[in-house]
Specification:
mainly alpha; 2 domains; globular
């Protein structure tokens, strides 16, 4: 985020084209563009995204910061073992 904004690309993070560059803050990006939280919170955010956009076939998990390898692996494990089973259960799909 810092690199893209520093290189003159804040529009990549804006919810509206007329949004002020100064309003593209870390908190704004985390709260409006990043799905994060506990497994139940993440599952609910994924389901909310699906309600707003309609069904989608693939969800891409993107992790760009591997500064803490154990934490990154734990995050992926939680996605696979806790988040997606909650999502699939809500959608009535097999886990």
């Amino acid at each position: 985020m810092r690199k893209l904004i520093g290189n003159g690309r804040p529009e990549l993070f804006k919810g509206q084209p007329d949004m002020a560059d100064a309003d593209v803050t870390h908190d704004y990006v985390m709260n409006s563009l990043v799905i994060h939280g506990t497994p139940p919170q993440v599952a609910e955010q994924i389901l909310d995204l699906r309600r707003r956009t309609g069904a989608f076939g693939t969800l891409v998990y993107a992790g760009h910061d591997w500064a803490d390898v154990a934490l990154s692996r734990r995050s992926m494990a939680l996605m696979a073992t806790e988040v997606m089973p909650l999502v699939n259960r809500e959608l009535g799909e097999e886990e």
